Amino acid sequence: MLDARRLRLLRELSRRGTIAAVAEALAYTPSAVSQQLAALEREAGVPLLERTGRSVTLTPAAVRLVDHAETILAVLEQAAAELAAARTELTGALRIGAFPTAVRTILSPALVALSRDHPRLELLVSELDPADAADALRADALDIALLQEYDYVPAEPEIGLATEPFLEETVHLAALSPDTLGAHRDSSWIAGTPGTLCHRMTIRSCAAAGFAPRIRHHADDFGTVLALVAAGQGVAFVPDLGALDVPAEVVLTPMPIRRRTQLAYRRGTGGHPIIAAARRALHTAAAEKQSHPE
Asked: What residue ranges are annotated as transmembrane (predicted)?
């Protein structure tokens, strides 16, 4: 019988490429990952890894097993969801991952509603960049999370996850005057930390306008970004949810750029009563925010 936890490790190895990366993502030691994968090989009865020095690659049998693992893990999640549906009251932990502006504007009212309607739920929130959310879901560190994509930074299909549309926002150019994007080809820019979606969107949006932005400051909090713009330190892109408490000096000019957010959870868990309750609360909070943006 194949162990589902070990199948999850093999799937992560197929995505991350090294045992060290799997260990870091799942809070194991590299030796523990190696031992579990060796045990999975014994269960499978065929070689799953080809070892060359310190590197490993998946054998053809392992690649086929990873394909099956996606289905197996989703079916197990669905079975757990159906068992949970038989309970009369929602109890247990709900681990939610969201980006900072969503925590302040959408997640907070959703948490109030969940606490009121399901007082025995233990609500656990992690603030993280959307670029990290999918891996956290696959690693079973989160139950539901918000993923994002921007125009010019489309999202890749997320293996092992189910997603649904959640929110779409306009991206604005924050500056000290209502200028066009092209007017700031020689300006200083404020962008997110390298590696974040916001940083990549800034670079690609400017490239589409025919120039490379001269990024002077890196900030991930849009309140900080707006304060830097107000101080004359540069210009920046700011989405709707980030446009809170805009300084009087700052002008927001809507751009033909959109940020789209999706709700994501592991395949098979969408019908779990806890996940279903979270989905309802989050959608209600997002609809209320869009109806009353101020």
From this structure: none
